[in-house]
# Entry
Amino acid sequence: MKQRMRRHIVLVGMMGAGKTAIGTEMARRLHVPFTDSDHEIETAAAMTIAEIFARDGEAFFRDRETRVLARILDGPPGVVSTGGGAWMRAENRALIGARGLSVWLNCDLDTLWHRVRQRSTRPLLKTADPRGTLAALMAQRNPVYATADLTFDARPGDTIEAAATRLIAA
Ligand code: S3P
# Structure
């Protein structure tokens, strides 16, 4: 069924929560554009996120992220996947609140770790104890993610399709 959306659906949450995978599937089903803010940042800079962090630092990346988010949210309504840190900035929360429905993809630590450990692309996890860093980030961020309009509890056994079905229903 073709849906008409007036606002963006903006997925927020930790790295590894499935924002990109589930968002892509939701957009396909809702017949709306899908945009991944990390991907947009990389394309605009012609650099990977890891390269931006290494060359210009996190503060520079965060400013880029805000600019890119504002541009995406200015476009036609769709499903937007944000980087894990985007919801931590009040300015981004205000931008998202003005134009979209925010959805926190809440996921348990073991599932997150299982997904992100395979890939060494997340600069914030380049520490001596990446699992501990992930746990600390999660503890610090979850109360802020919880202020999103909707909380979606990912189930460890869910396929991407099943999660998209439950999320669209919600
Ligand atoms: C970050 C998450 C990453 C990316 C950057 C910082 C974070 O995005 O934006 O590495 O602060 O949690 P994903 O959540 O898509 O992995």
Summary: The chain has a mean pLDDT of 94. The CA atoms of residues 37 and 106 lie 19 Å apart.
